[in-house]
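RECORD CONTENTS
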Amino acid sequence: NYIFGGYASIAWNSSGGEYVKDPKAFVFSLLNPSNHPLFFKSRDPNTAIYHDYSFGPVFGKDICITDECNKNESFANIGTSY
């Protein structure tokens, strides 16, 4: 019942476990029954994106897509960092 995503102006990489600054990053929602706002900018651009070899794209502490997400737990906590 939810459709959401994120945008980063820098390419994601899996080189290490670190937050990356991206003042242009944002997360969005196209469909949400909770009636949350549809667009969020990062509250702290210094921690907007997280790069790690065991994850796919991570947006702050709001959206985390894990490696093999069909087997491992991914999550969305919109409103935490964005």
